[in-house]
Amino acid sequence: xxxxxxxxxxxxxxxxGEVLSTDRTRIGxxxxxxxPGILLVHGALRDSNDYTRLxxxxxxxxxxxxxxxxxxxxxxxxxxxxxxxxxxxxxQAVREAxxxxxxIGHSYGGLVSLELASMDPSIAKVGLYEPGVLLRPMxxxxxxxxxxxLLRNDRRGAFAHFVRGMGQTPLTRLPYWYAKLILRLMVRxxxxxxxxxxxxxxxxxxxxxxxxxSSCLNYGDTQADVLVIQGDKSPDTTKEAMxxxxxxxxxxxxxxxxxxxxxxxxxxxxxxRIACLLANFFLIPEGVR
Length: 289
Known about the structure:
Helix content is 40%, strand content 18%. It is of the alpha/beta class. The protein has two domains: 2-134 and 216-283, Rossmann fold (3-Layer(aba) Sandwich), CATH 3.40.50.1820; 141-211, no CATH class. Strands 1-2-3-5-4-6-7-8-9 form a nine-stranded mixed β-sheet, sandwiched between helices.
């Protein structure tokens, strides 16, 4: 079931629509442009509004659909039976509603895109920016501390446990109390308010990342053409995983963008540069590398 209404966004550029997923959860999306359809699946602690600059840049040649994954924005809640399968069903529902043949996935959204593409040969091309795949099992000790902080309504504490636990920044090496203080000073205002709202959803999503950790080499059956993009400022562990993932997928290519980190596709990153790589990839005939 699909409804689509023209509603002005803040920039007055996007058309809004929604679709019901398999479990009847509402999944909202916003669209811009004209041409072959691309569906963008955003990362954790984010929503569709964090990728509008990327969508606008790509809209010169494509119709770009920015979905809000369940648990935020235009979409319904994650629900008590949340799992990766639900995310894949949501993406599939938006694909069917919009006719999008191509996927873009960032971080956790990249993992969702990979999972779906490995199961659905109708997906012709997938562009990924540092998808959330891991070469080794993820330690879950920080997740227990994160959950305990949420139960105390200490969202600053939960966020500090998350940042330290992921091991992707120098804050990992700092004492918890000091990392929490630094993050309080660094992350404020509306940026913090969005993160705070999404911390419960983020924990559920990273439980799925942990469940699927060490699965980096399991995507060899993916039939889509895959472009993997990484930033040269990202940690070596991320680059190692991206290299392994690209090696595992037959029809894949790895690109490195200078000066960018894990947040390259987002509005405050380098979306115009990422859009150029993605546009060139999607415009090349399928099967040509």
